[in-house]
Amino acid sequence: MVKLKNVFKAYNQRKVIEDVSLDIEKGTITSFIGPNGAGKSTLVSMISRLISKDDGAITIDGKDIMQTKNNEMAKKISILKQTNAVNLKLTIRELVSFGRFPYSQGRLTKVDEEKIDEAIDYMELRDIQDKYLDELSGGQRQRAHIAMVIAQDTEYILLDEPLNNLDMRHSVQIMKTLRNLVNEMGKTILLVIHDINFASCYSDHIVALKDGKIVKQGRTCDVIDQCVLKDIYDMDIDIKEIDERKICVYF
Amino acid sequence: MGYKMKTWILAVIAVILMALYVFYGLTGNIGYVLPRRLLNLLAICLTGGAIAFATTIFMTTTNNRILTPSVLGLDSLYMLIQTIIIFFFGSNMMVLLGGSVNYLISIAGMILFSLFLYQFLFKGEKNNIYFLLLIGMILGTFFGSFTDFMQVLIDPNEFMMVQDRMFASINNVNTDLLYISIGIIAITFIYFMRFYKYLDVLSLGREEAINLGVPYHYVVKRLLIIVVILISVATALIGPITFLGLLVVNVSYELMKTYRHFYIILGAVLVSMIALVGGQFLVERLFTFSTTISVIINFIGGLYFIYLLLKENRKW
Fold it and tell me: Residues B292-303: pLDDT tens digits?
């Protein structure tokens, strides 16, 4: 379980996160939604140790994320950021191999190789595993990065706008993969997402942020609600139910 | 052709050049000339290796390909220290102090200065590499102007002493200093081995490194201190060679086309030795000392730097 308690963060006096408390259960997909500048990415970055918090406590399975050894945390939680522009000469397989670093410290064992193979097969990258990253399309590159996260084999996976710059087909493909990771492998996934329809269709819980505060959190069906969304986005959003899925019409 | 093969080819070229340097035109008092040349060769390889090695680490930890520690003003600081010593104490003092005191003062000065500069790098959450560059450039220019100012004031004879140190030269290596340098570099290298495994991961960038469990601040701080020690030792031993590091590391990246630091570092060290030994060979035998190695290296390095800027520019 990921627990946040009274977390604060400010950049030069400007408060970005104010008094956020949150519990995230195991084996679920939780989406963070909200307008630009609401603090979604900041929150996810703090949970994954990329930036420090000013005040409050963040624990994962009862362990404080800053007190626990880096290497141990890296086996528990992984993050995929929106900007993953690696400008190295790397093949897909080499990138995925980096996911094993917390276990192998650079010397891959047989177990590591097996995990890498599994991750590559899971993301269906076998045919192109020796291609260089700069030769890939955006969708393939995103899949390669997700394969790396899978190889890292952590219980908790954080993704910061994983659907950025992807077309519908690839977006759906990625979301289905994430759903499978939760259903089949029992992972816990937290993601920042802009498209509320993707959030509505694929997540179990939604946390809505605005101006660094939590406006509403709860089960997806409770948050995808006309009044709540009006509160978050300051705009009238019509909600239609299609095949028992709530679809927001905001055009 | 794979990077292993390329490494071997580089190694062969380096060895051939070294042999050429030592044995070409070996006449006269061999008992004197041969040990002299071997010592020079050792100094060249040591500094070349140290600069290449340190620059690779610096570029990896700061995630850039065009900044080297020298660009941050270390070279101008070295000149300033030399000039200050002569300005205040005179060239007699320089002789009296002997090489090793001057050497240690220079190293200490450069290390302290870098530690001060690094404070800017670690301010805030992100690496402020551009801010660091800006501060380094400004201070570098300041040191340069201040050096000029003092040089104008001093006695012309004393100025000759300073000028002598303005360009890297391997023609007369102080044996004592060479042994001290070997010692310092060896100790630094042993300390470095603890962090070697992190290099490949660090080249993915700060966020990936933290994600993969690298104790980022701890490792990067220590790596940068290692860089400074190596560069300071190399500069104090033979003088400032601004562009060498930039040149050899980038050539190594272009040649090896891999992310593996083992081969990148090995390639950079070999290219560096080839450039220095080959350059020194040209200086001594072809130009018969009418120029210095740093002039050649800086000329080629400057051209390559412009090429790099133009090439990077096209990408945007």
Answer: 777 787 788 788
A100, B195, B231, B286, B314 from B218: Cα distances, Å: 21, 10, 21, 48, 36
Q: For residue A124, how far is the Cα from the chain centroid?
A: 20
CB-based contact (8 Å) between A70 and chain B? yes
Task: Please tell me which residue of chain A has the smallest CA distance to B202.
Answer: A98
Residue A175 in contact with partner chain B when CB distance is under 8 A: no
- Chain A residue closest in CA terms to B204: A86
Pairs of residues, one from chain A and one from chain B, whose beta carbons lie less than 8 Å apart = 54
Reported ipTM: the value is 0.85
How far is it, in rounded angstroms, from Cα A230 to Cα A223? 11
Which pLDDT belongs to residue B190? 92
Structure tokens at B132: 């660091």
Tokens of A4: 């946040």
CA angle, B237 as apex, B233 and B242 as ends, to 5°? 80
Q: How far is A223 from chain B (nearest CA, A)?
A: 31
- B171 has a chain A CB within 8 A of its CB: no
pTM of the model: 0.84
**Rounded Cα distance, B158 and B165, in Å:** 12
A169 touches chain B (CB under 8 A): no
Distances (CA, A) of B178 to B39, B45, B100, B167, B235: 8, 11, 10, 18, 12
Closest CA relative to residue A30, chosen from A1, A59, A68: A1
The residues near B209 (Cβ < 8 Å, ≥ 6 apart) are B198, B201, B202, B216
